[in-house]
């Protein structure tokens, strides 16, 4: 008789009402602490990333793709979130923008009658949205590895961790980076367990997004390599 694997029955049936309610609760646990009072504070590095996001948005909108490179990090995922916030608050921004230095974006937004803190809050909103989706995806992958209850406990511990909560509700790199690395690693571990190529592809895509967020994402390479060697031997 083949060994049963945690979560393997999920491929044979849909989620029950209890599981749907549990997922909704988990979404709220992730979402609510990260979206409260997003327009009430500014951290030291966020003006830089908001300006880079606006420049990134401007470069794409005007077809100046070389100017999408704004930082060596390179911070692409965060700049997408910030660019979405800029477009939400200033829909025609790309028609009147240029590559700005730090401090110049606030002046331009005030001239357009838009509050800079509202633009920052909008960028944070889209970053939190992406992180929430990624964590829920990670939860469903973890269910296949360890079962529903341990996966839920782990997800809740992550959702309410104070340090992670603080970093995942600002327009900055580290919350996004760690979330992407976690989900990529979970997907690769699931691939090793189930040998389904979809999980390997998912792991690779998300790993690539982590590298585009911040360079320490490359540490996934030795971790995944070690796991693959352990699995081989």
Quick take:
Helix content is about 70%, strand content about 0%.
Instruction: Give the number of DSSP strands.
Output: 0
Question: Helical percent range?
Answer: 55-70%
Low-confidence runs of at least 5 consecutive residues: none
Name the shape in a single word: globular
Structural class: mainly alpha
User: What's the Cα radius of gyration?
Assistant: 20 Å
What is the arithmetic mean of pLDDT? 93
**N-to-C terminal Cα separation, in Å?**
24 Å
The main β sheet shows up as: none
Beta fraction of the residues?
under 5%
Question: Can you write the helix and strand succession as a string?
Answer: HHHHHHHHHH
Summarize this structure as a short list of keywords or feature phrases:
about 230 residues, 10 helices
